[in-house]
Design a protein that fits this description.
This protein has 211 residues and is of the alpha+beta class. It has one domain: OB fold (Dihydrolipoamide Acetyltransferase, E2P) (Beta Barrel), CATH 2.40.50.90. Helices cover 40% and strands 16% of the residues. It has six helices and seven strands. The strands form two sheets. A five-stranded mixed barrel has the order 1-2-3-6-5. Helix 5 packs parallel to helix 6. The termini are far apart.
């Protein structure tokens, strides 16, 4: 009887440690789960890159709807935003709100906001200049196919006057807008040069730079 008990004890001793070893080392995750995780990470990175370059906001129909036509300006909202007499199918409106590509003018005051937001310096001057150069003009739009819409649904476009001058370039020359390098576009280097010239001339927004 003694021998039998001893053999049982040894048998349990032999099996006990092996079970503890298995419990202390959890099984490896399945290879399929790893592949799914890597796929999700790659997809998220791709979406972030596409959003940075505006690919998520590109609409091929915008290029065809606005390229090669001329429009009348119905209203200037501020130094970089205007409304033209063309229906906006994407937004379902009878007119189209345009945001000038590649420039950022000072923000106009927002009296209806709570609390109200005062106008930034030179906002009124930028609005007045854009209103002046667009008055009575038939304009053409140049669309960047890789990004046609902004965050608020506005159409992003380069606005050309009847003499082929660029509205954005005129604002930059006068120092009433900053070049906006957030997304690539065909006139990026030109806009950068015009802002640098305005800075050196100390005009508009840059009037205090050389004091």
């Amino acid at each position: 009887m003694t021998t039998s008990k001893t053999m049982v004890t040894r048998s349990s001793d032999l099996h006990g440690p092996s079970r503890q070893v298995r419990q202390g080392h959890p099984p490896r995750p399945p290879r399929r789960r790893i592949l799914i995780t890597l796929t999700v990470v790659v997809a998220l990175v791709a979406l972030a890159v596409a959003d940075h370059f505006g690919l998520l906001l590109a609409s091929p129909s915008d290029d065809g709807a606005y390229t090669g036509r001329s429009f009348m300006v119905l209203r200037v909202i501020d130094g970089d935003t205007l409304i033209i007499n063309a229906p906006d199918r994407a937004e379902g409106t009878t007119s189209t709100r345009i945001r000038l590509w590649g420039v950022d003018a000072p923000e106009a005051g927002k009296s209806t906001w709570h609390p109200p937001q005062p106008a930034e310096p030179f906002a009124d001057e930028a609005t007045a200049m854009l209103t002046s150069i667009l008055a009575g003009e038939r304009i053409a739009l140049v669309i960047e196919p890789h990004r046609t819409r902004g965050r608020h649904g506005r159409l992003l476009a380069h606005v050309l006057l009847s003499d082929d001058r660029s509205a954005a370039e005129e604002l930059l020359k006068a120092g009433l807008a900053r070049q906006d390098p957030r997304w690539p576009h065909r006139f990026l280097e030109r806009f950068d040069q015009l802002e640098l010239q305005a800075r050196r001339a100390a005009v508009g927004l840059w009037a205090d730079d050389n004091r």
